[in-house]
Amino acid sequence: METPNLSYINTMARGDESFVEKIIGVIKGEFYQEIEVYKNNFSDRNFKLAAENVHKIKHKISILGLEKSHVVANNHENNLKEEVHELHGDFMEIVKVIEDYLVTI
């Protein structure tokens, strides 16, 4: 499993630490809420809405430097649109890695 990092954020920030803090704050503020909405939509078998949730979440996955995980999330999003949910477990593993990382930064 890949390890999340701040490389992309630091590149965008160009040394502006307040920018880094703002982006991290936005990610932390939105990520947990988006995951809860995703879980609710998924458990309600509303796969089309769950796909929309994954679409929002996958941008955070990318920003945290998780390129392979972004591919999984993209595939999961596309599968959900077809009501196929075989990548849910893999997606939730990615979510767990991100959740664990976010408490450290």
From TrEMBL:
- InterPro entries to which the protein is assigned, alphabetical: HPT_dom_sf
GO terms in the biological process aspect are:
phosphorelay signal transduction system
Full protein name: Hpt domain-containing protein
